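debug: dumping io for the single-chain case to check the tokenizer round-trip. Nothing else runs in this session.
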Amino acid sequence: MNKWSSSLPYFLIVLIPYLILLVYTAYAYSQSPDSLAHGLPKMVTWVPATVSVILPATYGVLLFGFREHLKSSLALILGLLMAIALLALTFII
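debug: decoded output
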């Protein structure tokens, strides 16, 4: 149980920016017209959020599956890099 409780704050570092990305994507989807530039459908707005689910999923597998092989400082650095990438993706949308 200690392994799970010590990994959860690290996982939240990546999960919270992903949830921000999802909320912002939903907002952008509701505000966008039915057709985007070059005739693309409105659903294309969800592509970055769908593809970026790989980051929290991979980080969760690393933290909860291979925690004994992952140093705490490395887990924090990886989490921060993934969080920055997700926040940058939010600003790109």
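debug: round-trip ok. Helices lie at 2-31, 47-51, 54-65, 72-92.
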